[in-house]
Design goal:
There is one protein chain. It is built from 2 helices and 8 strands, in the order E-H-E-E-E-E-H-E-E-E. With 125 residues, it is α+β, with helices and mostly antiparallel strands. It has an 8-stranded mixed beta sheet with strand order 2-3-4-1-5-8-7-6, covered by helices on one side.
Amino acid sequence: MSGHGTIWWSELGTRDAEKAKAFYGNAIGWTFSEMPSPEGTYYIANVDEKPVAGVFTMKGEQFTGVPEHWMTYINVDNVDRRAEAVVAAGGEVIRAPFDVPGVGRIAIVKDSGGAVVGLGTPAAS
């Protein structure tokens, strides 16, 4: 896994995970495994059994009007401190830091130009 300031993970938010899995399976050759999550099944895209990306189904009112999209996460040394730094730098915290068991701590932020990105501190291995 890469260190602070590097791209950590990308995930696809879609309305039809099965359709997306079929597309990326055929177009890229990804295979998929499942990981339970509070919001439903999260799919891990794999290449040679190595996790490379995630796919989730956008459900609920928080996704009303949100188009299907790829979300990038940047690895940071301390997600709570970096979320505070985002605000100090003129950005906004969209979703406050939260824990994903076995994965790490994540926050969703908007930069000073309006682009949305995730920040993540990986769980200790």
